[in-house]
Amino acid sequence: MTNIQKVKQDSINEFGSEVTQGKYKKIAIEGLWSSEEVLIKKYFMSGTSILDIGCGSGRTTIPLAKMGYIVFGVDITPQMIDSAKRIAADQNLDINYRVGDATDLKLDSDSFSGAIFANNGWVQIPGKQNRQKALDEIYRVLKPGGTFILTAHRRYYAINNFLPWTVRWIKYYILKPIGIKIDEIEFGDLFFRRHVDNKQLKQRQFIHMTDVAEVEKQITKSGFKLILSQSMGEIAKSDAESMKASLSKNFNSFKSPFFYVCQK
């Protein structure tokens, strides 16, 4: 098993764990962020077919269905799909959910009018080449003119996180080239442990903190036209103030995450 495969499987195991499932069942009822709702209403045509990639337990899928969209939810973690199906059934919602890998969607080309990869989903795919494959797949399954909304954490540097990023830079660019084994696949990779009910979990989770220019380049490489590139705090200040998508108490939600709106 390669390092990328191990990181991927560890992530699936963590998302599928009992404690994380309990957390995501609660998350499912939180609904859309204000920033997501702004972009969805602006860029998705009402009543059209929407692919929700990395749908989890249904936080974005359920409100999209209630808004009248024909929604198809995909997630790589089987336990997430099981939870999403039960939650949708409890609300008498007919939503098509399927276990699937964003890098190989196994869906027909030109099938959806819109797609969304919300919160941390895309940046929790290990390996730049795999994140590129996911973008290529999303481009393929969208209809011509279709719109894709992507959220990706931005790598930023501040006084309170400058030292940790300096250490990661040394590990990746100095220690790795001389043969010292490190967990990071690329510079920007970050491993963290969730806190649930004020307790830190044993299982590690993976995320790649991106550079905006890097994401924009990958989006363009897939064939998409970039319509919007903007931080969450600029779209909806309330989301940043309430620390949406926060990884820690020191996380700056006004700088990260970033939204990208793309068109096929």
Element layout with pairings:
Layout: H1 3-16, H2 18-27, H3 34-43, E1 49-53, H4 61-66, E2 70-75, H5 78-90, E3 96-99, E4 112-117, H6 128-141, E5 142-152, H7 159-175, E6 189-196, E7 199-208, H8 212-221, E8 225-231, H9 232-235, H10 237-241, E9 258-263
Parallel strand pairs: 1-2, 1-4, 2-3, 4-5
Antiparallel strand pairs: 5-9, 6-7, 8-9
Short description:
The protein is of the alpha/beta class. The chain has helices at residues 3-16, 18-27, 34-43, 61-66, 78-90, 128-141, 159-175, 212-221, 232-235, 237-241; strands at residues 49-53, 70-75, 96-99, 112-117, 142-152, 189-196, 199-208, 225-231, 258-263.
Tell me what the structure shows.
This protein has 264 residues and is an alpha/beta fold. The protein has one domain (3-156, 211-263): Vaccinia Virus protein VP39 (Rossmann fold, 3-Layer(aba) Sandwich), CATH 3.40.50.150. It is 39% helix and 24% strand. The protein contains 10 helices and 9 strands. The strands form 2 sheets. The protein has a 7-stranded mixed beta sheet, with helices on both faces. Strands 6-7 form a two-stranded antiparallel ribbon. The longest helix has 17 residues, at 159-175. 38% of the residues are buried. The model has no long low-confidence stretch (mean pLDDT 92).
